[in-house]
Amino acid sequence: MNSPRTAADIMVTKLVTLTPDVDVFDAIQLLLKHRISGAPVIDAHWNFLGVFSEKNCMSVLLESVYEQHPTTHLYAFMDVEVPTISEDTDLLTIAHIFQDNNCRRLPVIRKSKLVGQVSRRDLLGAAHDLMAVAPESESAVLYLSSITERHEAPIA
Predict the structure, then answer these.
(1) 118 contacts: CB under 8 Å, gap ≥ 6
(2) Is residue 19 part of a domain?
(3) What range defines the domain where residue 129 resides?
(4) E strands of the chain, at which residues?
(5) Where residue 30 sits, what CATH number does that domain have?
(6) How far apart are CA 60 and CA 131, in angstroms?
(7) Which of 31, 28, 35 is nearest to 60 (CA)?
(8) Are 29 and 6 in contact (CB under 8 A)?
(9) Which candidate among 79, 84, 140, 148 keeps its CA 20 to 30 Å from the CA of 23?
(10) How far apart are CA 61 and CA 138, in angstroms?
């Protein structure tokens, strides 16, 4: 088996997804039922629209108390400006994105369509596996960085 090097190698493709018109309380129930902290929001054509997470649920609870439910549609509470990655994003870049952003998951997008998701746990598992197979002559961190570095085309 080849060592994982990109998002395509570690992404999960069987996902719980939501649509923007779903009732927000049904969405909360779905998160609880599946024991997940968030889910991508997509339209009928699998175009990625955003993420609905436990953090968004806090907004629902607070607005329920203070605003008396102005709407219960999910679109009013979801995050639309979230970092995303492509299938060819390397593991070190993914690690930097997680470090620089307050997110637990990165949607994997191909031509605006959701094709998968990489969680912090997915990345940690892949990095752990890579470091376990590092040659004795290299440090595990050096090995991880060497197999995930991008190979740019030479400038003509």
Answers:
(1) 7, 10, 11, 12, 85, 94, 105, 106, 108
(2) yes
(3) 7-147
(4) 38-42, 48-53, 105-110, 113-119
(5) 3.10.580.10
(6) 41
(7) 28
(8) no
(9) 84
(10) 51
